[in-house]
Amino acid sequence: MGHPKQILDILTAAVYEPWIDLRATLCILDPRQLLDERAVSNDNFRDQLAAADIIVANKSDRETAESARALADWWQRWGGERRKVSAIQGNIDLTLLDEPRRNTAPLPASAEHAHRHPPTSGLAALSLAEHQRWRRHLNNGQGYQGCGWIFDAETVFDTIGLLEWVRLAPVGRVKGVMRIAEGAVRINRQGEDLHIETLSVAPPDSRIELISANEADWNALQTSLLRLRLS
C-alpha cells in the first residue's frame, strides 16, 4: 500500500508539473472503521484521512447510531475546513474529482516506508514457475496477518462454492480476481459487506488474499479453497 506522503510528493514533483494538474484528493471511509481501535491506530489509515481534501463517508446505508457518532466526533476534531460527502457503494458526484486541491498540510513520512525501496514481495509481485499450478504467500504487518494464493490461467473455480468460501471465511478482509466457469469475478469483502463484479475479460491468473486481525487457520482455508477447483 502506498503511503500518502510518498504518492503526493511524486505527483507534485516539479518534473511532473507540465503533465499533471493534481486536483482534490478523495478518501473513501467506512465510518464503522472508526469504532475499530486497530484501524484508528494504523498509520496508513490516519494518514490517508489526513491527506484528503474530501472525505467520502461511504456505506451510508449501513450507518448505525454508533458509527454516526464516531464520524461526528472524528470530524469535529480532524475535519477542519475540508468537505464531507455521503455515499452508497462509493457512488459520488464525479465533479468532485475536479475540485481544486486545498489540503496542503504537511504529512508525516511512514516509518514502514522510510529509507527503503518499494516492496518487491507480496501477492501482487508473485509469479508462478513453469508448470506450477498454484502458490501461497503469507505476510503480516501493523497488527494484521494475511494469506494469499495465486493460480494459473487453467485453474477455474466453482462459482457458488467460491462465493460461499469468501462469505464464510473467518477474516476481516477478502479481495481478489478469480477465474470461474462463467468467466471471471472480482471479489471485495470487508467485514460482512461483500461486493462482487463479473468481468468480461478473464485475468491472466487468479489471485485472492485474506487479511485478518486474529489468528487464522490458513491450512484449513486452503484445503477448502483447493476443493473448489473445477480444473
What features would you describe in this structure?
- The chain has helices spanning 4-11, 37-40, 43-51, 65-78, 159-168, 218-226; strands at residues 26-29, 54-57, 83-86, 134-141, 144-151, 173-180, 183-190, 193-199, 206-212.
- It is α+β, with helices and mostly antiparallel strands and 231 residues long.
- The protein has two domains: 4-98; 123-228, Hypothetical Protein Yjia, Chain: A,domain 2 (2-Layer Sandwich), CATH 3.30.1220.10.
- The strands form two sheets. It has a six-stranded antiparallel β-sheet, covered by helices on one side. A three-stranded parallel β-sheet has the order 1-2-3, covered by helices on one side.
- Strand 6 (173-180) and strand 7 (183-190) form a beta hairpin.
- The two termini are 32 Å apart.
- Zinc chaperone that directly transfers zinc cofactor to target proteins, thereby activating them. Zinc is transferred from the CXCC motif in the GTPase domain to the zinc binding site in target proteins in a process requiring GTP hydrolysis.
- Residues 146-229 form the CobW C-terminal domain.
- It comes from Klebsiella pneumoniae.
- It holds the Pfam family CobW_C.
In short:
This protein has 231 residues and is an alpha+beta fold.
Q: What is the radius of gyration?
A: 20 Å
Largest pleated sheet: 6 strands, antiparallel
> Based on the structure, what is the oligomeric state of the protein chains?
single chain
For the record, what CATH class of the largest domain applies?
Alpha Beta
User: What is the annotated CATH architecture of the largest domain?
Assistant: 2-Layer Sandwich
How are strands sequenced across the largest beta sheet?
4-5-9-6-7-8
**Class by SSE composition:** alpha+beta
Work out the helix count. Answer: 6
CATH topology of the largest domain: Hypothetical Protein Yjia, Chain: A,domain 2
Span between N and C termini?
Answer: 32 Å
Low-confidence stretches: 112-119
